[in-house]
Design brief:
Strand content: 15-25%
Shape: globular
CATH topology of the largest domain: FAD/NAD(P)-binding domain
Distance between the termini: 45 Å
CATH class of the largest domain: Alpha Beta
Helix content: 25-40%
Number of helices: 10
Number of strands: 17
CATH architecture of the largest domain: 3-Layer(bba) Sandwich
């Protein structure tokens, strides 16, 4: 085997998980030879670049909250810390808040989660319908019990963050290879490398699955069965006739419908539904907006009844069907095969914490943030994480 095909670590997938892992690995140990193999370095169908983008503190599982807290710290300093070779990233970080709305049946659990978040130092408040209306006069919260508002939550330019991590990982020695990994190579329950669509073999005793929505296909080539499905998620951009006086937070209704304002008074919106198709489908359906989402938007924000549909797009969630949470760590039955999969829609904001954590696991150093609750062992045992973090 040529020496240029041998690596200490091979990362499959160069999106946010792959690039943060490469960044933290090469930062922790500059002597490591790290390769990131990505099928499309333009990231046309990457979930990272097709995301509507959100960073939120509001989770009911403590470790998810802590991962977001680290992301908040990283994003605040990102443009200064990630300037490389004179190129300063512009991530357009806006902390306009997240507002989760609740009906009576869900209010107690929401308030309990809020208390936990507050104990961790998060800025989250409970708002009554009157308070919601006072902050956002266009809203019609009648019939709701209230909502939790996270003032630190917000959004950013996902592509700029990804490119920042990639540029820094490369400057620290990571190699990016445009190719598709078609097979994991194993020998006596030990990973030994990968084969690619270009008929190239790369060797390594450590392979990290950061393949996003394609993670189950990749793992299956080594006989590993992951409960992660690629599920289509559609987003839409509309231009309402009536503009709000200021930016609107990401607002999530009890039905799962969500929206927020974007530059120029545009409104981005979407909704995950039970009937969303599983598979690698990137088409978007205008009827979904016209028949379903427009009605929900106009009911909650009557002023948005008159609007123009500007565009739509579709990306993929990597949905962990066991419990909707990340799968992080070495697969117990295959030495050297590490997983960073199954984020179910909140992977982008967890990228910094996960990349750092994976680098610590791989190098055998003490973890800064204990994310062992997401260990893959629970997948083998079929024990989902409960909302309180217990199994």
């Amino acid at each position: 085997m040529d020496s240029d095909k041998r690596y200490d670590v091979i990362i499959v997938g160069g999106g946010i998980m792959g690039s943060t892992t490469a960044f933290y690995l090469t930062k922790k140990d500059p002597g490591l030879k790290v390769a990131v193999i990505e099928r499309d370095l333009v990231y046309t169908r990457s979930s990272t670049t097709l995301s509507m983008v959100n960073a939120r503190i509001q989770f009911s599982l403590k470790q998810n909250v802590q991962a977001s807290q680290y992301a908040f710290d990283v994003l605040e300093r990102f443009e200064d810390d990630m300037t490389v070779n004179g190129n300063r990233p512009n991530i357009v970080y806006h902390r306009e808040g997240n507002l989760f709305l609740y009906e009576e049946a869900a209010a107690a659990d929401a308030k309990a989660a809020m208390v936990m978040q507050q104990e961790l130092g998060c800025q989250v408040q409970w708002w009554t319908p009157d308070e919601i209306k006072a902050h956002y006069p266009l809203y019609a919260p009648e019939g709701l019990t209230g909502g939790t508002f996270g003032a630190q939550d917000g959004h950013f330019d996902a592509y700029a963050v990804l490119m920042g991590y990639k540029a820094n990982a490369r400057s620290q020695g990571a190699v990016y290879i445009e190719d598709e990994v078609t097979e994991l190579i194993i020998d006596n329950r030990q990973i030994t490398g990968v084969k690619t669509a270009s008929d190239t073999t790369y060797t390594s005793a450590v392979v990290v699955n950061c393949a996003g929505a394609w993670c189950t296909e990749l793992a299956g080539t080594a006989g590993v069965d992951l409960p992660v499905n690629p599920v289509k998620r559609q987003c839409f951009c509309v231009d309402p006739a009536v503009k709000p006086d200021g930016p609107l937070p990401l607002t999530i209704l009890p039905s799962g419908f969500y929206f927020r304002t974007e530059t120029g008074g545009m409104v981005l919106l979407g909704k995950s539904m039970d009937e969303d198709p599983v598979g690698f489908n990137f088409t978007w359906d205008q009827n979904r907006f016209m028949d379903v989402l427009w009605l929900e938007l106009a009911e909650f924000v009557p002023a948005f009844e008159r609007l123009k549909l500007v565009r739509g797009w579709a990306g993929l969630y990597a949905v962990n069907t066991l419990d909707g949470n990340a799968i992080l760590g070495e697969w117990p039955e295959l030495k050297g095969f590490y997983l960073a999969n199954g984020f179910s829609g909140h992977g982008l904001q967890q990228g910094p914490a996960v990349g750092r954590y994976m680098s610590e696991l791989i190098t055998g150093t003490t973890t800064t943030l204990d994310l062992s609750i997401f260990d893959p062992q629970r997948i083998l045992e079929g024990k989902p994480l409960a909302e309180d973090g217990l199994v």
